Amino acid sequence: MTCSVTVNQSGKPFYKLTEYVHRNIEIKKLFSGNDPEFAFRLIVAAYRDKIARFISLFVHNEQECEELSSDVFITLWKNRETWDQIENPDSYLFIIAKNRALNHLRKEKAIKSVDCNTLEIDSFYHTKTSPESIFITNEMAEILDAAIETLPAKTKLAFHLVRENRMKYKEAAEVLGVSVKTIEKQIAFAVSKLKEHIEKFR
Amino acid sequence: MGDFFMERVFIVRKSFQTMDAPFSTLASKILAGEASDEEKRALKQLLLESDEYSLMYSRIKEYWDAEVNTSLISDREVFETELFRQLNLVKKSEKQSGMRKLYRKIAGVAAILLCMVAVSFFYLHQINSGHTYTFAAQNEPAEYLLPDGSAVTLNKNSTLTYQSNFGKRRRDVRLSGEGFFDVTKDATRPFSVEIAGTKTEVLGTRFNVKEQNNRIITSLVEGSVRFYSQNCNTLLSPGEEVIYHTRSKSYKISRIDPQLRTAWILGRLNYDNITFEELAEKLEQIYRVKIEINAKKIAGHTLSVSFLTEETAGDILDALKDELGFSLSFNADSTRITIDNQ
Predict the structure, then answer these.
(1) What's the pLDDT at B138?
(2) What is the tens place of the pLDDT at every residue in A139-192?
(3) Per-residue pLDDT for A98 more than 50?
(4) Residue of B59, B89, B158, B309 best to disrupt the A interface, most CBs of A under 10 A
(5) Contact (CB<8Å) A66/B72
């Protein structure tokens, strides 16, 4: 615990620190710092939307998404003693989020285990995809969203993590508990689906 | 001449592989930032040669990079206010449980004093008027460091206590629940773990101790430990464990895969180069299911796997089925999994 937080705590506006926190390595530094509450605030600011968005893939209710995201951060706080052992903060938080969401579904459906293949994943719950409109129009983006929606549940999850959260295959594999090869195949399949629909569009 | 020929063959094959890689595979790797330099070159070449591919890639990339806006957390300030309200509640309850632990400690010390009088026949425990220190893991496993540099990982809902005279002549700790110990070597000061009337004594080693349904299970990963209780005094070697029944006072020593006993620490199991058949056996042990392999060809296939212990055997096999080419079926209550050729 000799490493200290290298962020200037006073004076700087919060949003700048948020940008700073986006990089995994810096979060690791924060995690092993000596002011857990300060680190916690930054992490919440950097991750709340990402985590809520990820949970919304599983749970299609705004209020519940918000509550579950809050739970994720409370879990993170309760485990602050072990923060310095976290190897990859990104996958760590998403694993907690996944477990929270699956637990919630289990309770809601009063079943023992959730079968990942039959999960109803809504890839674009309460979202709007805005392309730059150079090569594709908003209309085409909508069609491509719909194309992604036709993929198997596990593939949708992988696509979301790699595309929107810029996760490495290895990190996404860790979060979803599958092999790197599987993620690689899933992403290639998603891209081939996009290609297929773009071809149809013309 | 021979060498030259070999080199040519090699180059031809290499370029064949990359040129032939389908567009989607290459494009997906590049978008995900997972492509090698060679793959990047291959896609560039492909895009240069074909306007159609070039436009296709631009479109897919624009979609990939497009912003996905969400309004899930409608009011961030409200979200944070609520979150920090909860955080303060957690802080308060942590403090309270600290106080409760203190009361429990006092009650515990009183009970020990009483017990000392009544059951001093078993072993003499040094009582010291000094402080008692307690580590308690709550909902998740947590690692703690003892004053001598030994590390202990406590499973959830487990506690470890030691006295302020720890490390003077001996290193005695008391455990309830489950703990994994990585003990610093020190031949002059033996380290002992007391749990439910049994003792595990070591000099410097790594081992796991667990209390479950009136059984004490001590599993040794490395080094050597001596386990003793009323009618048992035995030395374990690495890869062995003793299961002691606290009611019947009987015990049994068996060989185990130490990884199975320590998987709870990381929540993950890794196996390198094991055959599918061996993996199935492990899964049977961990998840208490029966796995029947009818696809004999696959049984001998070696693989390296890594999985989270919270997954089910079905999840793990499901993830492997495409790779190895088999199909899965379950019986009604999922206690038996049958594996057939695809």
Answers:
(1) 76
(2) 999 999 999 999 999 999 999 999 999 899 999 999 998 899 999 999 999 999
(3) yes
(4) B59
(5) yes
Pick the residue with more confidence: A176 or B287? Answer: A176
Which candidate from B31, B62, B70 shows the least CB-CB separation from A132? B62
Q: How far is B272 from chain A (nearest CA, A)?
A: 14
Within this chain, do residues A110 and A129 fall inside the same structural domain, yes or no? no
Please say which residue of A114, A146, A181 terminates a domain: A114
SS3 (DSSP) at B317: helix
Note whether A166 contacts B33, CB cutoff 8 Å.
yes
Q: Is residue B33 part of a domain?
A: yes
The verdict on residue A1 lying in a domain is no
pLDDT at B271 over 70: yes
For the residues B101-126, what does the mean pLDDT come to? 63
State CA B106 to chain mean position distance: 34
In chain A, which residue's Cα lies nearest the Cα of B61?
A: A135
Is A118 near chain B, with CB under 8 Å?
no
* Residues A91, A34 share a domain: yes
Instruction: Give the pLDDT confidence score for residue B16 in this predicted structure.
Output: 37
For residues A16 and A110, state if they share a domain.
yes
Identify whether A72 is part of a domain. Answer: yes
| Domain co-membership, A18 together with A109 | yes
Long-range CB pairs of B258-262 (<8 Å, 24+ gap) are: B258/B208, B258/B219, B258/B220, B258/B221, B260/B285, B260/B286, B261/B208, B261/B210, B261/B217, B261/B219, B261/B221, B262/B180, B262/B208, B262/B219, B262/B221
Longest dimension (CA), chain B: 92
Question: Going by C-beta distance under 8 Å and a sequence separation of 6 or more, which residues neighbour residue B69?
Answer: A127, A128, A129, A130
Mutation target to probe the A interface, by most A beta carbons within 10 A, among B36, B70, B145 is B70
Return d(Cα B338, Cα B290) in angstroms, integer.
Answer: 8
pLDDT of residue B17: 38
Residue A90: which domain range? Answer: 12-114
Predicted-complex ipTM score: 0.87
Residue B14 resides in a domain: yes
Residue A17 and residue A98 in one domain: yes
Residue A95: give its domain's CATH number: 1.10.1740.10
Same domain for B149 and B252?
yes
The residue among A194, A196, A199, A201 with the most chain B CBs within 10 A of its CB, best to mutate, is A194
Do A174 and A193 fall within a single domain? yes
Chain A residues with CB inside 8 Å of B308's CB? 177
In a domain, B126, yes or no: no
Same domain, B239 and B328: no
Whether B72 sits inside 8 A of A49 (CB atoms) is: yes
Instruction: Say whether both A28 and A95 belong to one domain.
Output: yes
Final residue belonging to a domain, choices A94, A114, A134: A114
Closest approach of A132 to chain B, Cα-based (Å): 7
Sheet architecture: strand order including B336-341: B290-293, B336-341, B326-330
